[in-house]
């Protein structure tokens, strides 16, 4: 699975951005996709995830301001970011969680995009 993120950039506090992540390759085993973010010196943290039924989960810090969605036909997820704050500044990574079932059982894998920088100025 290959993931390509687009849409990062510089925005003023209170502004909006939309991130996109297109998946390619063996996408049929993807069970969920999501967005994570990381700032220097800290661990990568969950922002939002969405599964094949379009169930979603958000970090408390972004709920109500960021919205994850998906277009199954395009194998693409989006992150609509509104009311952005300086603390949203981070590198945002797209994730695809894959489940492969075999005769012996099942295996899970995580694939990551290269990341896209989002900078919110105060």
Task: Write up this protein.
Strands 2, 4, 5, 6, 9, 10 and 11 form a seven-stranded mixed beta sheet that branches. A four-stranded antiparallel beta sheet has the order 1-3-8-7, with no helix packed on it. It starts with a strand and ends with a strand. It is mainly β. It is built from no helices and eleven strands. Helices cover 0% and strands 61% of the residues. The mean pLDDT is 96. It has strands at residues 2-6, 9-12, 17-24, 30-38, 45-51, 56-58, 66-71, 76-81, 90-102, 105-112, 116-121.
Strand content: over 45%
How do the helices and strands follow one another from N- to C-terminus? Answer: EEEEEEEEEEE
How many DSSP E strands? 11
Rg calculated over all Cα atoms: 15 Å
Spatial separation of the terminal alpha carbons: 37 Å
Helix count, DSSP H or I runs of 4 or more residues: 0
Content-based structural category: mainly beta
Mean pLDDT equals 96
The largest pleated sheet is described as: 7 strands, mixed
Question: Helix amount, in percent?
Answer: under 10%
Q: Low-confidence stretches at least 5 residues in length (pLDDT < 50)?
A: none
Shape: elongated
